[in-house]
UniProtKB/TrEMBL annotation:
Catalytic activity, EC: 1.13.11.5
Homogentisate 1,2-dioxygenase C-terminal domain ranges (all copies): 292-450
Family: Belongs to the homogentisate dioxygenase family.
Region span, Disordered: 450-482
Source lineage: Eukaryota, Fungi, Dikarya, Ascomycota, Pezizomycotina
Protein name: homogentisate 1,2-dioxygenase
UniProt organism field: Cyphellophora attinorum
InterPro entries the UniProt entry points to: HgmA_C, HgmA_N, Homogentis_dOase, RmlC-like_jellyroll, RmlC_Cupin_sf
Pathway: Amino-acid degradation; L-phenylalanine degradation; acetoacetate and fumarate from L-phenylalanine: step 4/6
């Protein structure tokens, strides 16, 4: 198994395993026995239920967690809209349903996004693309974050709009959540579910990508004929253990930020939101090391569909079985051994939209360097927009020798894939000034024509010549005809 070259040691403790029931207490005995809501909770704690799904959701999809905390989360002043000119405002609020997204068929690619040395986590959230509406709990949003400074110590943020799938590209995120602490480094991911409050700190500028899922929840993809193990194994996901702060004297002011309906609100409270002493349930944040992904691939011929690299999937039941409102797919280091095969991805047009990013290294299907597909950059190939290898990659893959070869060494590319047609925000299309206007010119306009009409032979077509003389219309093999 490849070892992820982490620069920062993770000293936090975690619970292992994807999904299912978990429990944790920072003080022994803080979880009540045989009841979720006793008349008096241990140690004078308040109980609070955090519901990620409807109460009546099927058992295997039901997400509910019981929190045992010093003060309830309801204890705060009224929320007020955060002024647009505030240093803590959202730089690009979510457009209203069906408005302000630029839905265009052009292939798009972005140069690496800049750091913003003055921004904290909240202000650095730049909405690039998306579809749907968080108020209707439909669709998704795709963000770039690039923060230079930590959130203020006595502040917390949550999104009521959806789950945050966070993909760091540079810098380590130290995330304190209500349920415990996560250290998330490049080549790891984290999922912070809807409504969970957290604070992000870091010792250097950080940058990365976020997919906000407005509907449903991420799950591991079915393995089918692959069997019981492979791809992202459940045992490698990590959930934080209970960890709390004792700050309830009333002498301090904490600021709570809420992303609600695509806009930002703030409220004041005189105690910490990170006071959960114990919890148990099925709704919690988690992280995963991409270096533990176990890829599969062809060992004979043909490049398989990229779905074999899916880490997490959020099904879209409305669009049919096997269709996702969001898939998170990675392209890790792996061996290519297929013979007599064009090994990079083939040219294709998909009903699914593909937003790609590069955490580090280079992607084997695209050229890098200035004007190419670079770390901290991105690309979007929307519904039915044709794409595939650039000219240099095609020529090399078509004409080179095919010994077993390892690709992606020191590299990690990923894809947010969706059945929805993605629109691009004004920030993503214009304000960021990172769109590569010559993307098509660089990638596909230089493709050469290799077509050569075969010479006529005794008046037979090319198909007839390949199959043998004549046309077997009586059901016999053409090779049986004398």
């Amino acid at each position: 198994m490849p070892v992820t070259p982490f620069k920062v040691t993770d000293n936090y403790r975690y619970l292992n395993g994807f999904g299912g029931y978990k429990e944790s207490e920072a003080v022994d005995g803080a979880l009540p026995l045989a009841a979720n809501s006793p008349q008096k909770c241990p140690y004078g704690l308040y109980n609070e239920k955090l519901s990620g799904t409807a109460f009546t959701a099927p058992r295997d999809e039901n997400k509910q967690t019981w929190l045992y905390r010093i003060l309830p989360s309801a204890s705060h002043q009224n929320f007020q809209p955060v002024p647009a000119e505030s240093s803590q405002s959202l730089t690009s609020p979510t457009p209203e349903f069906g408005k302000h997204f630029n839905a265009i068929p052009n292939q798009l690619r972005w140069d690496p996004f800049d750091f913003d040395e003055k921004s904290t986590w909240i202000h650095s959230l730049h909405l690039v693309a998306g579809a749907g509406d968080p108020q209707m709990k439909q669709g998704l949003g795709i963000y770039i974050y690039a923060a230079g400074t930590s959130m203020p110590e006595k502040s917390a943020f949550y999104s009521a709009d959806g789950d945050f799938l966070i993909v760091p590209q540079h810098g380590t995120l130290d995330i304190r959540t209500e349920l415990g602490r996560l250290l998330v480094r490049p080549n790891e991911i984290a999922v912070i579910p809807r409504g969970i409050r957290y604070n992000v700190s870091h010792t250097e500028p950080v940058r990365g990508y976020i997919l906000e899922l407005y509907q449903g929840a991420f799950q591991l993809p079915e393995l089918g004929p692959i069997g019981s193990n492979g791809l992202a194994n459940a045992r490698d996901f990590q959930t934080p253990v209970a960890d709390f702060i004792e700050d309830f004297s009333g002498d301090n002011t904490w600021t709570l930020y809420a992303k609600f309906g695509g806009n930002l609100f703030s409220a004041q409270q005189n105690h910490t939101p990170f006071d959960v002493v114990a919890w148990h349930g099925t709704f919690y944040p988690y992280k995963y090391d991409l270096g533990r992904f176990n890829p599969v691939g062809s060992i004979s011929y043909d490049h398989p569909d990229p779905s074999i690299f899916t880490v997490l999937s959020a099904p879209s039941h409305a669009h049919g079985h096997g269709t996702a409102v969001a898939d998170f797919v990675i392209f890790p280091p792996r061996w290519l051994v297929a013979e007599n095969t064009f090994r990079p991805p083939w040219y294709h047009r998909n009903t699914m939209s593909e937003f790609m990013g590069l955490i580090g290294g280079s992607y084997d299907a695209k050229g890098a360097g200035k004007g190419g597909f670079q770390p901290a950059g991105a690309s979007l190939h929307n519904t039915m927009s044709g794409h595939g290898p650039d000219m240099q990659t095609f020529e090399k893959a078509s004409n080179g020798d095919l010994p077993p070869a390892k690709v992606g060494e020191g590299s990690m590319a990923f894809m947010f894939e969706s059945c929805l047609m993605l629109g691009v925000t004004e920030w993503g299309l214009k304000t960021c000034a990172k769109v590569q206007e010559s993307y098509n010119e660089h990638s596909w306009e230089p493709l050469k024509v290799h077509w050569k009409r075969p010479e006529s032979e005794r008046g037979l077509s090319g198909r007839e010549k390949r199959n043998g003389v004549g046309d077997a219309r009586d059901g016999s093999s053409v090779h049986d005809i004398k």
